[in-house]
Request: fold
Amino acid sequence: MNSTPTPLYAGVDGGGTNTRALVVAPDGRCLAFATGNSSNINTAGPQVAAANLEATLSDAAKQFGFKPNYAAAFFGMAGVNDSSAAQLVTKLVLGFPSVKISGFEVANDTRALHAATFGVGSGIVLIVGTGSKCYGRAADGREWEAGGVDFLVSDEGSAYDLAVRGIKAALRAIDGRGPATALERLIFSALKLSEYGEISQRLHQNSLENPGQPMTKTEIASLAKFVTQAAADGDAVAGQVLEDAMRSVLETVVAVAHKLQFVSGKVQVGITGGVVLNEPGAGVFKKCLQEVLPGAVTVVPHIPPVAGAAVRALALGGVAVTPAIIERLESTLPEKLKS
Reply:
């Protein structure tokens, strides 16, 4: 294996489903990309998360043909919501036996999305995927975040939240507390239930994916597609569920905008996640956004969060991140990251 002729910088996007690592040169050129398994310490567990992080960074360097020695790295991690979690991941990274990193930072994955959307500028970003979280950074460096603490008490508007709202609406319809809805048939057919009371056993004791075990957050979140499907087909109950979820997640955006004193008509909101990028959720989200923050505009990042993490890694390593560097990074992205 060759020695490294130029400093390597790594951006890491660590999620509950998979881990992505993008290696770039000081001039922004993308050199290698690798994908690994989950590195969310809350879902995978600290030791498994650490092993998956190290393996992904090691694979990326090997693809380029060099030792996994990095000048700087930025870890944008789902599940890192407080200083103790960041310190835990920091300790895990410092303990990597085969991957060496001279300097690095661990933070929530919203920071990577922000860099992918605004570079080193200001703005608000919102992740609405399996979970959700909102983060903003002002021009003077002030930061604020809202939501996304944990799926049991937060994650407003996420696929998980949307699925739970859909299940509740179906239950209300079945026992007469709410109006009829296609969600009864769609959700209960997907869960393979013959009686609605069986849902308790399915949720807590007998997952379809893992018999004998509770349904996971991801498995429950997968049911969100039935809410958006029913809403797209004109089901009034599903449409209301979707709108309520979008209003809920927009509360986090408003909180961040107000805390950072953004002027309403000039607010830019970078968005990612299938719920808000695809119809009918996208249209409902934008309609509700105008109601709570008139004049605000949504922005879709030109580069993926893992590339945003690479931008943060370059800055962390002392590289002046110019528009030319970001343009070069974007133009040299691996094909699998351009879709």
Remarks:
- The chain has two domains: 9-108+303-337, 159-299.
- The radius of gyration is 21 Å.
- The longest helix spans residues 236-259.
- The domain at 159-299 is CATH 3.30.420.40 (Nucleotidyltransferase; domain 5).
